[in-house]
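Students often ask why we bother encoding 3D structure as a string. The short answer is that it lets us treat folding as translation between two languages. Here is a chain of 87 residues written in the first language.
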Amino acid sequence: MDRRYDVPRFENIEFLIEGNGAIIIGRAGPSRCAVTADDEEQSLAMLVRRDDETLLQPMARLDAANAKALEDNVYIDEINNGTSDAF
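And here it is in the second language, the structure alphabet:
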């Protein structure tokens, strides 16, 4: 049985991983669920999953945060600095 899912394409996350970056989904510090992204040199974004979010929603925010980090050198750390309205 061939199953096809209508899922978003996280182009910035794909770009990061193809360039030896990484993402992590899971517990981080005091957050029961977070999504993080880093390249070989630094952390690009660390986002906390909000209570009302599906798992895909913080992934979409992470994709946007990766673009901002890679293009504008803007880094978001919600794990240590609290929730951000930026993403």
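Translate back mentally: Residues 11-81 form one domain. Keep this in mind for the problem set.
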